[in-house]
Write a structure and sequence with these properties.
By secondary structure, this protein is of the alpha/beta class. The chain is about 50% helix and about 10% strand. It has 2 domains: about 170 residues, Rossmann fold; about 200 residues, Dehydroquinate synthase-like, alpha domain (Up-down Bundle). It is globular, with a radius of gyration of 20 Å.
Length: about 375
């Protein structure tokens, strides 16, 4: 039966090597005069933030900076960033970095025009008003946050990651410059790249997939799967870096509209409680969740095997679907990405609590191609201890 669907994404996307040099024009186009940068200490150390500030200064644009974003940022980081933005009387927010910095930038910009409390905005379409204008500049090919109306924050009290979903989180402009990813270490390239690949896989197999999201997800899988090894092995390869950044963006557009599924639902509790980096948490959970989900939509997983270059011609659909899992296993091995939860201190006694946490992420589980129970969740976690 036909259904009514909605597709939304960032209104302006500027992409290409050297695109960062056009940042002042993008700020002026949006009427900004006092920019505020939200980023993390690593990018300050790498010299990227100084480069941005120099570009702004030479263009006569005033800027301030908050550079204390942490991985899997806590809710409290928003409050700290918001105080700095208000003190600077900024009129445009620049998020620079990986998904954590971009998410903090999005939420901070929104909170600048909404009273809160922030807890009242966790969920879907609960933010009343737009915030400050924002430009997002990713430095990893991973989260696709620059084109999603989603921000994820860690709630330490509940040991969970929580999401705010609102069109007001979409930036006015996404600026993607692959030159900013050239210095990314191989391990970070692998983890963030796998995260982007998983976004595309989950968007394609989501119950909410549409013809529009399918086109984006398929192209994203092709770009990421066929370039991630090169990007990790030769980080200065600008072609591979460009294709990875493009793939990450397309995957972000796909999952922002189709939704992700159980892989992310399982990754959230282990990320929040054991501080496993998001891309690693997703990669660990990908294979067992794919194996569980195969029978929920064999044809889609068979398609994925073909996209990954597996020869499935004349093969029974179920067997072809299984080759998608084989391809992902081989990729994870080539990239040297961690595969076991025990590497991060997770033990058998932790499984019941983690499973209960995963089952609370109903926003994502409703998209999953196969229904799962609490006992299923426990078994999936146990399979990768």
């Amino acid at each position: 039966m036909d259904r009514i669907t909605v597709f939304q994404t960032t209104g302006r996307i500027v992409m290409g090597a050297g695109a960062l040099n056009g940042l002042p024009q993008e700020i002026k186009r949006l009427g900004g005069s006092k920019a505020f940068i939200i980023t993390d200490p690593g990018l300050v150390q790498a010299g990227i933030v100084d480069r941005v500030e120099t570009i702004l200064r030479e263009a006569g644009i005033a800027s301030g900076r908050f550079d204390k974003v942490e991985p899997d940022p806590r809710i409290e980081i928003v409050f700290d960033a918001l105080a700095h933005v208000r003190a600077a009387e900024a009129d445009i927010v620049l998020g620079i970095g990986g998904g954590s910095s971009l998410d903090i930038a999005k939420v901070t910009a929104v909170m600048a025009a909404n009273e809160g409390p922030i807890g009242s905005y966790f969920g879907i379409d609960l933010v009343p008003r737009p915030g400050l204008k924002k430009i997002l500049i990713p430095t990893t090919a991973g989260t696709g946050s620059e084109v999603t109306p989603i921000a994820i924050l860690s709630d330490d009290a509940e040991k969970l990651k929580k999401g705010i979903v609102s069109p007001h989180l979409l930036p006015e402009t996404a600026l993607l410059d692959p030159e900013l990813t050239l210095g990314l270490p191989a391990k970070v390239t692998a983890a963030t790249g796998m995260d982007a690949l998983i976004h595309a896989i989950e968007a394609y197999t989501s119950k909410n997939a549409t013809s529009l999201t399918d086109v984006l997800a398929v192209q994203a899988m092709d770009l990421i799967y066929n370039n991630i090894r090169t990007a990790c092995a030769n980080g200065k390869n600008i072609e591979a870096r460009s294709r990875m950044l493009e793939g990450s963006l397309l995957a972000g557009q796909a999952f922002a509209n189709a939704g992700v599924t159980a892989v992310h639902a399982f990754a959230y509790p282990i990320g929040a409680e054991f501080h496993i980096p998001h891309g690693i948490a997703n990669t660990i959970m990908l294979i067992p969740v794919m194996e569980f989900n195969l029978m929920g939509n064999c044809s889609r997983f068979a398609d994925i095997a073909g996209i990954f270059g597996e020869d499935t011609e004349g093969m029974p659909e179920r067997r072809a679907a299984a080759l998608a899992v084989c391809a992902v296993k081989e990729l994870a091995e080539d990239l040297g990405v961690p595969r076991r939860l025990s590497e991060f201190g997770v033990m058998e006694e932790d499984v019941p609590g983690l499973a209960e946490g995963a089952m609370k992420v109903t926003r994502l589980l409703t998209n999953n191609p196969r229904d799962l129970t609490l006992e299923d969740a426990k078994n999936i976690y146990r399979s990768v201890l």
